[in-house]
Write a structure and sequence with these properties.
The complex is a heterotrimer of chains A (about 180), B (about 300) and C (about 100). With about 180 residues, chain A is mostly helical. Chain A is built from five helices and three strands. The longest helix of chain A is centred in the middle third of the chain and has 25 residues. Chain B is mainly α and about 300 residues long. Helix content of chain B is about 70%, strand content about 5%. Classes of the chains: A mainly alpha (about 180), B mainly alpha (about 300), C mainly alpha (about 100).
């Protein structure tokens, strides 16, 4: 089953990032793997660790889908705090709705136009949205429109406000211009 | 008391899952029940203080085998044009009831015989436990697999290679073709997943290899985890089936068997028996070769191809 | 049983509670997308609490760090699977009922 790559639209082909993108992500990968390896085995197996880090970095560089975005390490703390708080409240919210005797849900669909650029920001947006209370990212339609499934959709503006808040946090984390938060 | 309750839940759960697997409403639900059965089985192994077996069961029994079954189900759908059906034999009570009863009686009989045997004072296990420090590894499972019973592991690698060769013989007549699905389309999140999971699977595989000497782990578990990374690459369209195995792939496929046999023969001129390990380094060398061979064989079995190449 | 063990046990039990809540949601919610909400979010919090309880039981920062990595990897798997299943469910719905 072969497909003519000339007829596949550019956004849908298997990505081929630049050499610099590969190097950046390969190095980031190698650092992450090195830290985890040290936590796992300490300083006993450094040679094997070095092999793992180099091989892992190469594998990451091979599999990277695009240019990694710059992020400031200090901004990670606030973003991690927001992420943790949202995950916990998301879990509490859905557990309360599931155990509620009258099943307090009102599923609706909402469309939100993203202003984040393609790559890590958009990927983080789509993945973290599913962890926030009441929202689930179902599909990314053409023109950057995110199809969101809301568990309690009786107030669409409140759901949009939640999505806008996540968009703002991600834009701040990657030092991108602040989005308008309108989503239309 | 709580431990007994947990063990009872696991045991009853295993029997119920096995029943659901065999008498599943359709093939897909039977496969899912089988995967869950594998996971609960690995819990049972953990409760029986066999963490190596638990790891192997989770990685190979539930993970890789589950993926193989699911991709086969999907391929059958494409090949036959309809969803695979459950055979009529499993529905017939005349066949299933006597078979079930006979199996239960066999297990009960074997268990009764095994439990009523008098305990031997000097079993092979006891001897192996005492002579474990000679092997240089402190994990008794690795000591047995690659030291005392290395012959079995060597033949297991032969079996794995034979399985791949057999799959090639069958596949050359009924080539399944590429995995169905829009593999050329870029699904959001998949690229990010791969860029993280493939390096992590490499890390976990090498860690399991390194830890196998002193903690639960080893080449089989590590090979299965590495194969899982490879399976992910096949499923997401980064790797596709090639018509021929490249030279590197051929070398890696026989690497486990070749290195194992080679190291086993090294000590012969010195008067030692075959497969006597020259030292701990030999065990790690063999385990590395085994890891690579097992991983590549499992991925090639999943892709049902002689070789893999990067999708262009 | 000192305070550390009590808190660790409490965290483990509450983690199990959230897993049960997620399963109840799986059984009670009407359609695929609502069930995905329940599974992803409740299991995520359940895993976080279980990892927290285990980290407290062990009491070592190294183990706590490794459990954090395990939680993040579990999160990654859950959220990507959730998105892929939701996409597939959308593809399989009738064109008239598509949102």
């Amino acid at each position: 089953m072969t497909t003519d790559s000339a007829t596949t639209p550019p956004s849908q082909r298997i990505p081929t990032p630049s050499g610099r993108a590969r190097l950046l992500w390969g190095v980031q990968c190698a650092v992450i793997l090195g830290v985890i390896w040290l936590a796992l085995t300490g300083v006993d197996a450094l040679i094997l660790g070095a092999i793992t880090v180099i091989a892992g970095g190469t594998a990451g560089a091979w599999a990277v889908p695009g240019m990694p975005y710059p992020w400031r390490p200090l901004r990670l703390f606030r973003f991690a705090g927001f992420f943790l708080w949202s995950s916990i409240s998301g879990g509490f919210d859905v557990a309360w709705r599931a155990l509620h005797p009258r099943l307090a849900i009102d599923p609706r669909w909402i469309r939100y136009r993203l202003e984040l650029p393609a790559g890590q920001p958009r990927t983080l947006m789509v993945s973290i949205l599913s962890l926030l209370p009441g929202t689930l990212s179902a599909d990314l339609e053409p023109d950057n429109v995110l199809l969101v499934h809301a568990l309690m959709g009786s107030d669409p503006d409140a759901v949009r406000a939640d999505v806008a808040q996540l968009e703002r946090e991600i834009a701040w984390f990657f030092s991108l211009p602040e989005p308008s938060g309108d989503g239309r | 008391m709580i431990a007994l309750a947990m063990d009872a839940i696991i045991a009853i759960g295993l029997v119920w899952l096995a029943l659901r697997t065999v008498r599943g409403a359709n093939v897909f639900s039977a496969i899912i029940m089988f995967i869950v059965f594998g996971l609960i089985m690995s819990l049972a192994w953990a409760r029986l203080h066999a963490p190596d077996l638990a790891l192997a069961e989770a990685a190979i029994g539930a993970g890789i085998t589950g993926a193989l079954l699911l991709v086969t189900w999907r391929r059958l759908q494409v090949l036959e044009g309809s969803v695979p059906q459950v055979g009529a034999e499993t529905r017939s009570l005349w066949l299933t009831l006597p078979t079930g009863l006979a199996a239960a009686l066999l297990i009960a009989g074997l268990g009764w015989v095994a439990l009523s045997l008098p305990a031997e004072p000097a079993t092979a296990g006891e001897l192996a436990w005492q002579r474990l420090p000679e092997m240089g590894v402190s994990n008794p499972v690795t000591g047995v697999l690659l030291g005392f019973r290395a012959y079995d592991t060597l033949l297991e690698m032969g079996v794995l290679l034979a399985a791949w060769l057999g799959a090639q013989v069958v596949a050359s007549e009924h080539r399944p073709g590429a995995l169905p699905g829009p593999a050329h389309e870029e699904v959001p999140l998949v690229g990010a997943l791969l860029s993280l999971v493939v390096p992590i699977s490499l890390l976990v595989a090498v860690y399991l290899l390194q830890a196998g000497g002193s903690a639960p782990g080893g080449a089989f578990q590590g090979g299965a985890v590495l194969a899982a990374g490879g399976v992910l690459l096949c499923l997401t369209g980064r790797l596709e089936a090639a018509d021929q195995a490249s030279l590197i792939e051929r070398v890696v496929l026989i690497l486990g068997l070749a290195v194992f046999s080679g190291v086993g023969l090294v000590m012969l001129p010195l008067g030692e028996p075959m497969l006597a390990m020259p030292g701990v380094w030999a065990i790690y060398l063999i385990e590395t070769a085994l890891l690579l061979s097992i991983a590549l064989t499992l991925v090639l079995l999943f892709a049902a191809a002689p070789g893999l190449r990067r999708r262009l | 049983m000192n305070l550390q063990e009590v808190v660790a046990t409490a965290l483990l039990l509450s983690g199990c509670f959230f897993y049960i809540a997620g399963t109840v949601g799986l059984l009670r919610f009407p359609d695929v997308f609502s069930r995905l909400h329940a599974l992803t979010k409740a299991d995520n919090l359940g895993l976080f609490l279980v990892c927290g309880g285990l980290a407290l039981q062990q009491g070592s920062p190294r183990i706590a760090g490794l459990l954090l990595v395990i939680w993040l990897l579990g999160l990654l798997a859950a959220t990507v699977s959730c998105h892929l299943i939701a996409r597939r469910a959308l593809q399989m719905t009738d064109p008239e009922q598509r949102p």
